[in-house]
User: Fold Polypyrimidine tract-binding protein 1 from Takifugu flavidus.
Amino acid sequence: MSNTANGSDSKKFKGDSPSKVVHIRKLPDDITETEVISLGLPFGNVSNLLMLKTKNQAFLEMNCEDAACNMVGYYSTVMPVIRHQPVYVQFSNHKELKTDNSPNQERAQAALRAFGASHMAPCAVASSSVLRVVVENLLYPVSLDALCQIFSKFGTVLRIIVFTKNSQFQALLQYPDAVCAQAAKLSLDGQNIYNACCTLRISFSKLTSLNVKYNNEKSRDFTRPDLPPGDGQPTLEHPSMAAAFAPGIISAAPYAGAAQTFSPSYTIQPAGVTVPALPGALTSLSLAGAARMGFPSLPAGVCVLLVSNLHPERVTPHCLFILFGVYGDVMRVKILFNKKETALVQMSDSTQAQLAMSHLNGQKLYGRAVRITVSKHMSVQLPREGHEDQGLTKDFSNSPLHRFKKPGSKNYANIFPPSATLHLSNIPPCVVEDDLKMLFSSSGAEVKAFKFFQKDHKMALIQMGSVEEAIEALIEFHNHDLGENHHLRVSFSKSSI
Assistant:
């Protein structure tokens, strides 16, 4: 096989060895050159592009192999979605691109030139890891969580502060480094959060770091989950916020129909590349609300997730059922027989799958950062009759532990990112604080704080030593029998003690 790709190439490639040429498959029919280039821009210079539109494929040549490795590595853990369609990114077997003068390739070269010198050198002009974001033409309310969801595509959002200045809604947002900030600015500056309104104007801040004192709806430090919520700060339950999120943007429709209750026009315009958010940068709105905010959703029918980098000796189907069950009803789980650090998790629908992937991707479970992408499988197959798979495949479709079977259940409104603080409920009167602290420390974890709800001792908050310890405690003690026919209910809390 030739080491040069050209426009007449008709072979399918399965590149495994690193190359600065990246092969992109399963592209939408009406894909644009700009959208393909946008896939590579956050990772470095894009030096060449070859479009094979009739095959729904493209080749993208980065300026160096390291940039291509970063790109392929990232998209192997977080599948990119263009216009609600998952696309596949892998190394090409070719080492460079050779383009001709056909009209198709002239368009590709023109698109590359149109990005300009500053776009082709993301690191060159980045001056700060802190961005100042102004939202113009604010026809609909924009929350801190919505901004985190949008900006987390380009890197982990460390800290964010939202405020109003000169009658304009603004935010300061800090990334780990200036490269992430530059990539976000290049791709998002001038974009609309909603169709024809809520326009983002982005510049570099003179600040080098943000000092956040409280974790609430106005400020957040994702590196400090222990920060207090502060006094007098509005929450989503505050009357003024409730009015802001009146029907029109946030739907009160039941969760099961959420995917059908909003117009597809509520997307970042123009329709571009979207990927699921990183941990901690996820809205704490209801499921229907998250969909209405225009966050990218998986295509209907896509409800199986591929979960990798699991601890093969500790993770079981039941463990994944409990954890993923925080974000939706898990139907089936299959740990792969020949690759036990990898599993398939089938959710009830695509909205639940999106929610679980967004909240759990990158979280640590038994010492390993879990990676979650969309699976190519449409369902998890049970073992054929007479075939034993050592209990690696489990059907949970009739489990009594599903949290979202009841339409309108309060569980819909209490879905939050993994946190060190857990919410406990269904506690019988005979169980006291020391009983629960002893239970949650019995596996060797640290219990830092505990508090019963003042008006209802059936509920309590317990703060573990870390988010990872809280995740493991939720898996171990959700549905734990406390006696008197009371089984403990455990979920993640948005509050801290």
About this structure: The first helix runs from residue 33 to 40.
